[in-house]
Design a protein that fits this description.
By secondary structure, the protein is mainly beta. Helices cover 12% and strands 35% of the residues. The protein is globular. The N terminus is likely disordered.
Length: 697
C-alpha cells in the first residue's frame, strides 16, 4: 500500500488518487469546485410567512424594557445553491432570500449539506435588506413551531442542550439576542421552550422558562473569596437579574458571573445582552463562578483595563481542546469560504496552501508543509521530486535498487521511484524537494510533513535492506534538512512500535500513525482491536516518553452522528495514553465543509492518577483498560475527576469501577455541524468488544 498523505486525503474526500494537485502540491492543489451561481428565482408570495413582529419584554437588574422587534426566524425550502450559500423561499411577505453563512454563524446541519428541496431555518440579526445569519438548521422536511420541555444537560457555546421529557433524547436550543430567558437557566434545571424547529434536530426558541421548583443548584456567592481574577469575554446567557454567563476563552471557558448590590456597573450606555462583551473583575474560580466587584460592558472584542485587578489574572492550564489537526484552505479540505475564525477555536495544526500559511500562523495556528521525497511519481504535483529522482535526474543514483542493480519501479500513479535512504545521494534529493517547498511557503511554516517515511510496503525491498540500519540512515537524511519534521511512518507496519525508530532524529518532533484506532474497509468503518491496538498504544507511550508528538490519524469516513460508539472508542483509546503536550488527533468522518473535528476533542483530562510504561499497565482484572484523571475539563470548564475505559479485546468486559455515575454522551456530528457532548448519560456496566467510554461523577 502506498501511504501518500495528499492522495490519502483526496481519497477520503472523494477525489481521484491521480487527479492533478492531489499528490503533495503546495498551494497548487486543485481546490474543491465551487457551487456555480444559479439564476435568482422570481419573487413571489406563498403561504406560510415566517416574518412578522413580536413584542418582547426583557428584564435586567435595572429596568424592564418592552420593544417591538422584527421576528428573526426565516424558514422555507432551499430553491437554489449559490457560491458560498443558498437561496430559500421565505414565504408570504418574504419571497426569495439569499443566505450566506458567516464565520460566526452557528450551523446545525445534522450531517446534511445545503440541497435544493431541503428546508432551512435561518436565525437572522438585522433586517431583510441587511442581515447576517446568526444560526442555520437544515432538515429534509418542513419544520414547524414546537413547544417542549426537558432538563438542561449542558451549557453550550450556542445556548443549551436539553434532555427531552418526551423521548429522553438530547437536542440543542440555539439562543440569540432575542431569546427570552425567564428564571434561573443552568445545568440541571427543568425548562419549557417554544420556538421553530424540530425535537429531532434543533429548536430556535423564542422563550425558555425555568419550571424547576427550586434553584438549589445555584451556587451561593462566597462572602470570603479566596482570590481575585479578571476575565474578558462575550455574554452568552442572561440567567437572572443577578447572574450572567460569559465565554472567557481558552483556560476559562463558560463562566457564571454573579452581581450584588455593591457591584460597580460601568455599562457605558449598553445593556447586558447576549453578544455584548464584558470585562469582569471579581472573586472566585473558573471551575465554579465569580462574584463580580466590577462589570464593564463594551463593544470591543479585546479586554479593558478599568479597574486594574488586585491580583494576577487567571492563567489556567486546561486548554480548550486536545491537540488536533485538520486540512484547511487547500488539499480538498475546508474551503476558503469558511473563515479562519470559524475553525481556529478547534484546531492546533493545519495543512494549507502556500498562499494561506501566513494567515493561519497570524491567527495562532501551526502549519506543516506536506512533502514526499521518499516516493516520487510522474503524476505528482509538483514534479520537482520526480524530475530529480527519475533516471537521468540529478539525484537518480538515490533510486532504490534490487541486488542485480535494477531500479525498483512502481507502475502505479503514472510510474515512479523510491529513494533509498542509504544512498549518499538521498540527502541531496531530499534537500532539493525541501528547498522548493519551503521557498513556496516563503518561510511561513512550523514544520514539514515527511510522507512515506520507511513505507516499504507494495514494492520489493531494496538489496540487503534491514530495519535497524535503514532507520538510522533515514534519521540522518531527516537531520540533514535542519528543519522541524513530522514523519508519517507509525501506521506503515504490522506493529507500529517497530516504526518508532524512524522518529529518533533530533529535529523530528513527532510521528503520524495513519489509519490507527479506526479505518474504513470496502466502505465500512471499523475499530482496530487486539494486538494491533496494543501496538498503537505502546507507540504512543514511547513517543510521549521521548517528548515527541504522537499524531493519531483515525481514518473512519462515515457519518459521525450515526457512529457515536466508534467515536467513543477512538477518543477513549486516544486519551488512555495521551499527554496534552505530546498527543494529537485527526479524524476523517464526513462533515460540513470538510472539517471533521468532533466536539469530544474539547474534553481535556489532566492530573492522571497513573502513567504506565506499557499499555498493559492500564489493563484491569476485568480485561478492560482504564486510566483515571484527577481533573477534567470541557472547553476549559471544570467537570471534576474522570476515567477512560476501553475494551479492545474479543469479549465483553465489565466496567472495572463503580466510582462514577455518568458517562460522556455524543450528539450530532462535527463542531461545525452543531454536534455537542452531554455529561449526564448513565454509566454502562459493561463494554462489548471495540467499545470505549468516558466516565464522570
Amino acid at each position: 500500500m502506498r501511504y501518500v498523505r495528499a492522495a490519502a486525503l483526496c481519497a477520503v474526500l472523494g477525489f481521484s488518487f491521480i487527479a492533478a494537485g492531489c499528490s503533495g502540491s503546495g498551494g497548487g492543489a486543485t481546490p474543491p469546485m465551487p457551487i456555480p451561481n444559479q439564476a435568482a428565482q422570481p419573487t413571489q408570495t406563498v403561504s406560510g410567512s415566517s416574518l412578522g413582529t413580536m413584542s418582547s419584554t426583557t428584564t435586567t437588574e435595572d429596568s424592564t424594557v418592552t420593544a417591538s422587534l422584527k421576528l428573526i426566524k426565516l424558514q422555507g425550502p432551499i430553491v437554489a445553491l449559490k457560491t458560498g450559500g443558498f437561496q430559500i423561499n421565505g414565504g408570504g411577505g418574504v419571497g426569495y432570500v439569499n443566505i450566506y453563512p458567516a464565520s460566526a454563524t452557528k450551523l446545525f446541519y445534522n450531517g446534511l449539506k445545503p440541497t435544493v428541496g431541503y428546508y432551512a431555518v435561518v436565525d437572522i440579526s438585522g433586517t431583510l435588506s441587511s442581515f447576517t445569519p446568526a444560526a442555520i438548521a437544515l432538515s429534509t422536511s418542513q419544520p414547524g413551531t414546537v413547544s417542549t420541555s426537558g432538563t438542561i444537560e449542558s451549557e453550550q457555546p450556542y445556548g443549551i442542550a436539553i434532555k427531552l421529557d418526551s423521548t429522553g433524547a438530547y437536542i440543542p436550543l440555539a439562543f440569540n439576542t432575542q431569546t427570552n430567558l425567564y428564571g434561573f437557566i443552568g445545568t440541571g434545571v427543568h425548562v419549557s421552550a417554544s420556538g421553530v424547529g424540530s425535537t429531532a434536530t434543533a429548536i430556535f426558541p423564542a422563550s425558555v422558562t425555568s419550571t424547576s421548583t427550586t434553584t438549589t443548584s445555584t451556587p451561593s456567592p462566597s462572602s470570603t473569596p479566596s482570590w481575585n481574577m479578571h476575565v474578558h469575554g462575550s455574554i452568552v446567557a442572561i440567567k437572572s437579574s443577578t447572574e450572567l454567563q460569559i465565554n472567557g476563552g481558552s483556560g476559562v471557558g463558560y463562566l457564571n458571573v454573579y452581581t450584588t448590590g455593591s457591584t460597580i456597573k460601568n455599562y457605558n450606555g449598553l445593556t447586558p445582552a447576549v453578544g455584548v462583551y464584558a470585562d469582569v473583575y471579581g472573586n472566585g474560580s473558573v471551575s465554579t463562578y465569580v462574584t463580580a466587584t466590577d462589570v464593564t460592558l463594551t463593544s470591543s472584542t479585546t479586554g479593558g483595563a478599568t479597574p486594574a485587578p488586585t491580583a494576577a489574572p487567571y492563567s489556567g492550564t486546561a486548554p480548550a481542546h486536545v491537540m488536533t489537526s485538520a486540512v484547511v484552505w487547500g488539499y480538498g479540505g475546508v474551503p476558503t469560504t469558511v473563515s479562519i475564525a470559524s475553525v481556529k477555536p478547534y484546531v492546533s495544526w493545519v495543512q494549507t496552501g502556500s498562499a494561506y500559511a501566513g494567515d493561519m500562523r497570524s491567527n495562532g495556528l501551526k502549519v506543516d508543509i506536506y512533502e514526499n521525497f521518499w516516493r516520487n511519481y510522474s503524476s505528482d504535483n509538483p514534479t520537482v521530486g520526480y524530475t530529480d529522482l527519475k533516471p537521468g535526474g540529478t539525484h537518480a543514483p538515490a533510486e532504490a535498487k534490487t541486488c542485480t542493480g535494477t531500479a525498483i519501479y512502481d507502475s502505479t500513479y503514472g510510474g515512479g521511484y523510491e529513494a533509498d535512504a542509504r544512498s549518499s545521494y538521498a540527502a541531496g534529493h531530499a534537500q532539493v524537494f525541501n528547498n522548493y517547498r519551503i521557498q513556496s511557503y516563503s518561510g511561513q511554516y512550523d514544520a514539514i510533513f515527511s510522507d512515506d517515511t520507511g513505507a516499504m510496503g507494495g514494492l520489493p525491498l531494496p538489496c540487503n535492506w534491514s530495519l535497524s540500519s535503514y532507520q538510522s540512515y533515514t534519521n540522518s537524511v531527516h537531520a540533514s534538512l535542519k528543519v522541524p519534521i513530522f514523519v508519517n511512518t507509525l501506521g506503515a507496519a504490522a506493529n507500529p512500535v517497530n516504526q518508532v525508530g524512524y522518529t529518533n532524529a533530533s529535529n523530528v518532533i513527532g510521528g503520524m500513525c495513519e489509519i490507527c484506532l479506526a479505518g474504513n474497509r470496502s466502505g465500512t468503518d471499523y475499530a482496530q482491536t487486539g494486538s494491533y491496538w496494543q501496538g498503537i498504544e505502546n507507540a504512543a507511550i514511547q513517543l510521549v516518553a521521548n517528548h515527541k508528538i504522537f499524531w493519531d490519524y483515525a481514518r473512519a469516513t462515515g457519518y459521525p452522528q450515526s457512529e457515536t460508539a466508534l467515536r467513543n472508542y477512538i477518543y477513549a483509546s486516544f486519551l488512555l495514553t495521551y499527554n496534552p503536550s505530546y498527543s494529537m488527533l485527526q479524524e476523517a468522518f464526513k462533515s460540513s465543509y470538510n472539517f471533521p473535528v468532533m466536539p469530544e476533542t474539547g474534553f481535556v483530562p489532566e492530573s492522571p492518577v497513573t502513567t504506565a510504561s506499557t499499555v498493559t499497565g492500564y489493563q484491569t482484572s476485568t480485561g478492560a483498560y482504564m486510566r483515571q484523571f484527577g481533573s477534567c475539563y470541557y472547553r476549559g470548564s471544570y467537570k471534576g475527576k474522570c476515567a477512560v475505559v476501553v475494551n479492545p479485546t474479543g469479549s465483553t468486559v465489565t466496567i472495572p469501577t463503580t466510582a462514577y455515575s455518568h458517562a460522556l454522551g455524543l450528539v450530532g456530528g462535527g463542531v461545525l455541524d452543531g454536534g455537542y457532548v452531554t455529561f449526564g448519560n448513565g454509566r454502562p456496566s459493561s463494554l462489548a468488544p471495540g467499545q470505549g467510554v468516558i466516565l464522570l461523577p
